[in-house]
Amino acid sequence: MTGTPPTKEIVIETHGRSGARALAGTVCDLYEAVFSLPPFNGNAAEFANQRRYFPGLLDRPGFRLTTARSGPDFVGFGYGYLLPPDTGWWSRLADPVDEEFATETGTRTFAFIDYGVLPGSRGAGIGRRIHDELLGGSGAERATLSVQPAAARTQEIYRGWGWRKVSRKLMDPPIPAPVFDVLVLERMPPARRS
Fold this sequence. Notes:
Blueprint: E1 10-15, H1 17-22, H2 24-35, H3 44-57, E2 64-70, E3 73-82, H4 99-102, E4 109-117, H5 126-136, E5 142-147, H6 152-160, E6 164-170, E7 179-185
Parallel strand pairs: 4-5
Antiparallel strand pairs: 1-2, 2-3, 3-4, 5-7, 6-7
Helix pairs in contact: 2-3
């Protein structure tokens, strides 16, 4: 799958469960195309793992998938869900957060799970549009994500958008990386008006 230069109008669309189910193969192909490249250098085990867990995410409360299309070609994606009150997201952190910070209500925090734009379509604001549409329409007060420390450029972009690092998490099993930085966005993008 190659990047499509953004010469055509870019269409940003958000999908619920049924739309995401129909796009599962496309999303997994995009994931592989993005995360096979440096600094991520994903491998077959990682891509098989993502193809296994993606369908299970669709049934989580607040699941959303946002895609970017240039004509008929998909060039970017992002997805996540609302953290439930019994989430383990804030456990096993290298630097624990306080109890109030870790308290979830089912609508407080949107977990931004995976996100990417094909290389040939980067630098045109597509990633920011996906980010803002996905998070702005989530209904959550804040968002969280985890990112590999080696992804310095990605982390720089997130910081520019208002994200801040709150801790690190050791992964068990260590797929796709042994350690992830955990970031939080406390000022959500506004919801798009139709």
